[in-house]
Write a structure and sequence with these properties.
This protein has 147 residues and is mainly α. The chain has four helices and two strands, in the order H-H-E-E-H-H. The protein has a domain of 26 residues.
Length: 147
């Protein structure tokens, strides 16, 4: 009778030994070989800017300072094309009463399009006719190369 009452304990001890043994065997093996990313042409992938500077800091800084007004103008023009930037405050204040929350739809639609007309179209029609509101697209990073 006593042997039977100890049987569950021996089973648990045996299972624990098997698990520990498997873990010890796996610890000696690499879990998975990491694959290095490759570019479409088979060469190494460029997923980041080079870390090694190719130009002196002063030259890079001067170039960035020269480009800043142009980039700001380009981004402002993009915002004005896509969004209604007029001041239309509601009665609701932002937290801390810094300023009032703007009201109304801010995304501009293509010329001659209304939200009602857009709602009556299927997604395929909107895509086919290129009528998706540009304001819902990402703005992108201003310094990123154009694709």
């Amino acid at each position: 009778m006593r042997f039977r009452s100890d049987l569950p304990g021996w089973i648990l001890l045996g299972l624990a030994a098997v698990v520990v043994g498997c873990m010890a065997v796996q610890a000696g093996k690499p879990m998975m070989e990491m694959q290095k990313p490759t570019a479409l042409d088979g060469g190494p992938a460029q997923t980041y800017f080079p870390v090694v500077p190719t130009k002196p800091l002063e030259e890079v800084k001067a170039h960035d300072e020269e480009m800043q007004p142009k980039l700001q103008q380009r981004q402002q023009a993009l915002l004005e094309r896509r969004y209604d930037l007029s001041d239309n405050p509601s009665n609701v204040w932002m937290s801390g009463h810094r300023k009032k929350v703007q009201q109304g739809v801010r995304v501009k639609l293509p010329e001659g399009m209304t939200w009602r007309k857009l709602a009556e179209m299927t997604p395929a029609e909107i895509k086919e006719k290129g009528l998706f509101p540009r304001g819902f697209l990402g703005r992108g990073q201003p310094l990123a190369p154009k694709r």
